[in-house]
Design a protein that fits this description.
Elements (H helix, E strand, L loop, with lengths): L4 H7 L6 E3 L9 E4 L10 E6 L1 H4 L6 E5 L2 E4 L5 H28 L4 H5 L9 E5 L4 E4 L10 H9 L4 H10 L9 E2 L10 E8 L2 E9 L7 H20 L9 H10 L6 H9 L8 E7 L9 H10 L3 E6 L2 E7 L5 H14 L3 E4 L9 H11 L10 E3 L4 H12 L7 H13 L3 H10 L4 H8 L3 H14 L7 H26 L1
Parallel strand pairs: 2-3, 14-15
Antiparallel strand pairs: 1-5, 3-4, 4-5, 6-7, 6-10, 8-9, 9-10, 11-13, 11-14, 12-13
Helix pairs in contact: 1-7, 13-18, 15-16, 16-17
Length: 492
């Protein structure tokens, strides 16, 4: 495995090392004696006496990798070389053990247990729900600080404490590599390392500087350890499905009985407030139903900070926080992207996390069936709410309470080969305007006048009564919606 100069500086501490190290690279794999004029390899640690550098007759030893050097206060070449070889052997054995564990265990705690002899400071791993998955077991309760104890006893920090961290460090879920905060998370300084699956933040490892004297070599070793943890995340991605936000979101929109507390917790940990206004946007492609894919979700999640996109069958489900990014701004940024992707969108109605996630997504799914489906457009679901209401009523209403005028006119038309049923529907839809009704039905006004007269003669119901009129019109709408649904099923 490849080590850094800082790791060797730590291991050579008995020789009072003085460092001139400027790089953060992990390149060193082999050891060679230093000689002037030779070609130097970046993966080699060179060892020699300082006289070779300064021609001062000094027998003190130095180590060099590329332009970095460690000067030692010793002339005991054998002891220094033994220390370097022991370091390489120790890390090599650790590397072999970790690789074997990565291929043989599903339990991430095993990786921590196999690392305790290499990293002495307390560490732990949390998933995307900020719940502890593994930790340094040689530090029981009472040995670090109160927050460490809370993690061990409760499996997570207090949610209010985590929300405070979010407020002070809003970009922490985007950071790559090793990082720390100006305001410490714990009573001691600590360093974090984020993990991502498909560019989605999925957890982090944290090391606590319990002594207040953590070295750069220890942090470099922690980074190597995090690389093993990252490989574990990627290998066991299927086993981590329950940790992913898209799984929580899809479960919530598909299952009316799903517990949304974990989704609520995750959104809170991402910095969303429980009172924020949320909005579903459903993206579809009219021509390429499977063209909306994981790649587009990744693009959306990488481009928008106040929303989350996940695959939902042949659609994309976008959960948007319109308290953090206005609906206008969202549409303005989203339209160019969906135009290129040959998609269109349908929006739902604002809600909060305390409302039914399932019902709000079901609403968007229903109304998206009735919009024009033009590429590059984002349709306001409120404009297509009436068909949705009809759909809901159709599912629950007793057909016997539909107004009898419909059955009466169907029978009359069948017996007399007339079209009074369609005429009354168009007449009521157009608010009893003869001009609008004639235009809607493509009829001459005299023809319409004749039909309206026949309706007044044969229909035993008072159309001047508002409630009667509304009852009949709603019955028409439900009946016509049933016909639409039946045609849709036949086409499928």
């Amino acid at each position: 495995m490849k080590l850094s100069m800082w790791i060797f500086a730590d291991r050579l501490k008995e020789f009072a090392p003085k460092t001139q190290i400027t790089s953060d690279s992990f390149e060193i794999e082999t050891l060679r004696f230093y000689s002037s004029g030779q070609t130097f390899n970046k993966n080699t640690l060179y060892i020699g006496t300082q006289d070779l550098l300064f021609h001062n007759g000094s027998t003190l030893i130095f180590c060099q990798n590329q332009s970095d050097r460690i000067y030692l206060e010793t002339s005991d070449m054998q002891s220094v070389m033994n220390c370097i070889f022991e370091t390489m052997e120790c890390y090599s054995l650790w590397d072999n053990a970790m690789i074997e564990l990565l291929s043989s265990t599903d339990i991430v705690q095993d990786l921590f247990d196999a690392t305790e002899h290499i990293i002495t400071q307390p560490m732990f791993l949390v998933d995307l729900m900020q719940r502890m998955q593994a930790h340094s077991r040689k530090y029981p309760i009472g040995t670090v600080d109160a927050h460490w104890d809370a993690m061990l006893m409760e499996g997570s920090c207090d949610i209010e404490y985590l929300k405070k961290i979010n407020e002070n460090n809003p970009q922490r879920f985007d950071l790559r590599g090793l990082y720390t905060y100006e305001e410490p998370l714990y009573d001691h300084p600590c360093y974090s390392y984020n993990f991502f699956i498909n560019n989605i933040w999925s957890g982090k490892a944290l090391i606590i500087d319990r002594t207040g004297q953590i070295t750069k070599g220890e942090l470099d070793t922690f980074c190597i350890f995090c690389d093993y943890l990252n490989r574990w995340f990627q290998i066991h991605i299927q086993g981590q499905d329950s940790l992913l936000l898209d799984t929580l979101l899809i479960r919530a929109i598909k299952d009316p009985t799903a517990d949304t507390m974990e989704l609520h917790r995750k959104l809170t940990l991402l910095g969303w407030s429980e009172n924020d206004s949320l909005l579903f946007v459903k993206l579809d492609s009219p021509f390429l139903p499977f063209g909306i894919n994981t790649h587009l979700c990744r693009t959306l999640n990488g481009s928008f900070s106040a929303q989350y996109a996940a695959n939902a069958d042949a659609s994309i489900c976008m959960l948007c926080n319109i308290s953090r990014q206005s609906q206008y701004e969202l549409a303005h940024r989203l339209i160019p992207l969906i135009t290129v992707s040959k998609c269109y969108g349908t929006t739902g109605i604002p809600f909060t996390i305390h409302d039914s996630v399932y019902e709000n997504w079901a609403y968007v799914e229903q109304i998206s069936e009735y919009c024009p489906k033009e590429i590059g457009h984002i349709y306001d679901g409120m404009d297509y709410t009436l068909p949705y209401i009809m759909h809901k009523m159709q599912q629950t209403i007793n057909p016997a309470i539909l107004h009898p005028a419909l059955a009466f006119l169907r029978d009359y038309d069948n017996k007399h080969h007339s079209t009074l049923y369609d005429t009354l529907y168009a007449y009521l839809k157009n608010e009893r305007s003869p001009l609008a009704t004639a235009k809607d039905m493509h009829l001459h006004r005299n023809t319409l006048a004749y039909r309206l007269n026949r309706l007044n003669e044969v229909l035993p119901y008072n159309l001047d009564d508002f409630q009667t009129r509304m009852h009949i019109l709603i019955s028409f709408q439900i009946t016509e919606h049933e016909k639409y649904e039946k045609r849709k099923e036949d086409d499928a």
